[in-house]
Amino acid sequence: MLIMSSGKNGESLDRIDGIKSSLRVISNFPKQGLTFLDITTLLLDPKAFKDTFDLFVERYKHENISVVAGIEARGFMFGPAIALAIGAKFVPLRKPKKLPVINTGEVISEKHELEYGSNCLEMHVGAVKSGDRVIIHDDLIATGGTICAVMNLLERGGAEVVECACVIEAPELKGRERLMSRGKPLYALVEVRSEPSS
What we know:
By secondary structure, the chain is of the alpha/beta class. The chain has a single domain, classed as Rossmann fold (3-Layer(aba) Sandwich), CATH 3.40.50. A hairpin with a 7-residue loop joins strand 2 and strand 3.
């Protein structure tokens, strides 16, 4: 059984409750024994969609953020709009061979482990620079492996990661602790955690 709990830091509980109720939990996806937390149903609910966007914008609009880094693919659903709203550029972190490398399109890459395998993400060289203040955005944090890989790419480019921002946190998988061990905070709107069967 899964329990959804509200985000922290004084967000409007009405908005958080609407976001929680719009999420879908899918068992045994993408592999047997795993639970997938789906935000596509949130995107079908215009109010929950807007409330999610607004909460992120309210948090970052006065924080001098110059880059929103979004992780393929669900980090692209809110990341570009958040970047526009706060006056930042959007940097996509993509799976291998998705970013063009012709002429000045050189990329750097970082491998990372997932709960169900491994993957690699790439970023264009020059997408970030020294002095950039970055938030990393994705739909969900589980173990934190993907976000840490993105952090490595951004720091290799000279940027400072200010915070990691996710719609959902699965706290039992210890992603927050992994980020905190690197001195990076996590802002998540909703927690989804398993309850032991009785």
